[in-house]
Fold this protein.
Amino acid sequence: MQEHQTGTERILIVDDDEGIAKLEAMMLERLGYKVTPTVNCLDALASFKANPGEFDLVITDMTMPGMAGDTFAKELIAVRSDIPVIICTGFSDRVNEETAKSMGVKGFLMKPVSWSGLSEMVRKVLDEAEAPAG
């Protein structure tokens, strides 16, 4: 069995499917992360704007009522340009790994998300965010 990547950073998960948000939160909490799952992207955006330094990473679903994940990611990055964002999607005509990166999104995962895929992507994105630019 492979070793899962662990950490202690603070992660905001946004997915309109409460079951998925809770499952991803549970997986990451078991790896040591402090996770805040939420099902409403508009509430999550308001919370982020009120305290942009509260999170080290945001993981968002792509297809949500109120605001699509790519638009949500752009809003987050407009508030705090260094916030790493991972977009998860089952299928999307609007976004793929290339378009996500061009928007400033640091990670892209296809659903269903596996524990190993999630842990590896989270650690990779966080490590890249912590590395000095150069």
